[in-house]
From TrEMBL, chains A, B:
SMART domains associated with the record: HTH_LACI
Keyword DNA-binding: yes
Superkingdom per UniProt: Bacteria
Keyword annotations of the record: DNA-binding, Transcription, Transcription regulation
Species annotation: Streptomyces endophyticus
InterPro entries in UniProt: HTH_LacI, LacI/GalR-like_sensor, Lambda_DNA-bd_dom_sf, Peripla_BP_I
SUPFAM superfamilies named among the record's database cross-references: lambda repressor-like DNA-binding domains, Periplasmic binding protein-like I
Name by which UniProt lists this protein: LacI family transcriptional regulator
Pfam families xref list: LacI, Peripla_BP_3
Matching PROSITE patterns: HTH_LACI_1, HTH_LACI_2
Domain HTH lacI-type span(s) in chain numbering: 4-58
Length: 334, 334
DNA sequence: TTGTACGCGTTATCAC
DNA sequence: GTGATAACGCGTACAA
């Protein structure tokens, strides 16, 4: 059976197609009685508008695109959750496009895929190390927003969180509870996230009147310290570990246990992100929660602004939140 | 600047629009030289086909829809990953639709959203307890595939994994390593997953010649045992815990530690799913890996079959895989 | 091998 | 307030 169109409704109602269109889209200049009749008939006939036809005519798709790394990380899912929720709230569809790593895939996406994408705007989610070619999107007419544009400098509006201030607050929390030999464990400092969190660490030391000791800094390659590196760090006798990623903190916790250190009695530990694992660790990990869902929602709002008003590049910052659990040793004395 | 269309190319190439269309879509009946010239001009002009116009004309969208619960779980993300990857491989777009819980939202989706969705087929991802109204999709002309249609009986093709056989294999592994008092910890048996895994547990006992002891069965409500329930179970002096979900196994591990039991020496533990957390637990959890990505990919293939050949309802089973780590106590003696 | 004519379903423009 | 007409960009009969 063929699709029901506004032409069918028009015939049935004895009016013209444009009138049906106006009635169904809530235009004011249509008779109240006519509108009701048309709406009733539309419902009776089981009319459903054709998205393609509407898009062809209006140039809008009522759809947002999300460009994601083809890479598993709970944080990305969390961001997508925020985006999906906010999009749905605004009656927009969400199209998800995995981006394979490599410059070639990026180039192909920008030149081949992007121009034909039935999408009104694009949200970019890119891990550190994504080559810059994707930045060509900025020279496109496609409205776009980047999430966590750390070190990319894409010349596009972006959403970020308070990496530096958030980590500073967490380290300061250790300082206030008497820790003096707090080590920093993070990634290489050419990683923009590691860099910002390291500066937050320095901020906290400065504020606490604690001199910076380079021996207490561990910057493993690939964000992944080896067992040896951790052992060596523990040899410097720290009483606190400020770890720039939860995942690294988990390794550290296990290494501490293995070496016979007690957490938090001997060594306090804090992480960053609030991974789902942080809660079930022993002891549960104190960490800085990234507001991923809110960041996703904010990206949607910015994108809509950009689509409707053609706003110039800007950015939006969502605050992180210190989540105090047991690993920092301050649960009992508060 | 206005969009470049095939009309522009036609004018530039001195041919008619249909010729351009045929050349660009690889129809055989077009002169080799003409084709080349048209392709070159298309590239020069930066031509990009209009997805809406094509869809309007052909009735196809080259897009798959994914209906997901508005609910955070790593497994759903994993499935989406598999779907996204396979869709991309086939040149299909992926549209993600969150489904809020409740019969009303389901009804609305089926009657309002679905009919206008610019999608060629739909993959359904529904947690236990999703009311049956969504099953109305079966009476629709929309090709659909369900993932893990446990207990829904939706009369639609579905993809599943070997819950019963997989759990049986894992429990049998414990039996073979000398465990005799193996407890089952799962959800209520009206939960179809709990039911199947429980039967796998019984299968293994039977095969191992171990009589079933009801005291060794813990069926907490909501898949979430209380501390008291676990304590009581440990009072029955089990030497193994067969847990139907990793998440519950994590609670159990922590409870065991708190009660002073050693894992795996005193009590061996196995879980189900292979959550990302399983690897970082102490000790790392032996578990049954769900092939989520492959299930997603399989769903895409089934859906494509259904779209192209209108296949009748069928189903496809992907095997689980036993992942042996330390918590089952058989690493050292193998 | 190529061109002519037309339709897909909707909305914008303008006239009445 | 409503109708006639056209246009969005593309693909497909059919004829040449």
């Amino acid at each position: 059976m063929p699709r029901v169109t506004i032409a069918d409704i028009a015939k049935e109602a004895g009016v013209s197609k444009p009138t049906v269109s106006r009635a169904l889209n809530g235009h004011p200049d249509v008779g109240a009685e006519t509108r009701e009749r048309i709406q009733r008939i539309a419902a009776d006939l089981g009319y459903a508008p054709s998205a393609s036809a509407r898009s062809l005519r209006t140039g809008r798709h009522d759809t947002l695109g999300l460009l994601m790394p083809l890479q598993q990380w709970w944080g990305y899912s969390d961001i997508q959750y925020g985006i999906a929720e906010e999009s749905a709230r605004r009656g927009l569809h969400l199209m998800v496009h995995p981006l394979r790593p490599g410059e070639r895939a990026e180039r192909e996406f920008v030149t081949q895929t992007l121009p034909t994408l039935p999408v009104d705007g694009l949200i970019l989610l890119m891990p550190e190390g994504t080559p810059r070619h994707i930045g060509a999107i900025a020279h496109t007419s496609m409205p776009s927003v980047v999430i966590d544009d750390r070190g990319h400098r894409l010349d596009l509006p972006y959403v970020e969180s308070t990496n530096r201030a958030g980590f500073r607050e967490a380290v300061l929390h250790l300082v206030r509870h008497g820790r003096r030999r707090i080590a920093f464990v993070g990634g290489q400092l050419n990683d923009a996230f590691a860099q910002e969190r390291f500066e937050g660490y320095l901020d906290a030391l400065r504020e606490g009147g604690i001199p910076y000791d380079p021996d207490l800094t561990l910057l493993p390659a690939d964000r992944e310290p080896t067992a040896d590196e951790i052992t060596e760090l523990l040899g410097t006798d720290p009483d606190g570990l400020a770890v720039a990623w939860d995942e690294i903190a988990f390794s550290a916790l296990n290494a501490l246990h293995a070496a016979g250190h007690r957490v938090p009695d001997d060594v306090a530990v804090i992480g960053f992100d609030d991974s789902p694992i942080a809660r079930v660790m022993q002891p549960p990990l104190t960490t800085v929660r990234q507001p991923f869902r809110q960041m996703g929602a904010a990206a949607v709002r910015m994108l809509l602004d950009s689509i409707e008003h053609g706003r110039p590049p800007a950015h939006f910052t969502v605050p992180t939140e210190l989540v105090i659990r047991d690993s920092c040793g301050s649960h009992e004395d508060q």
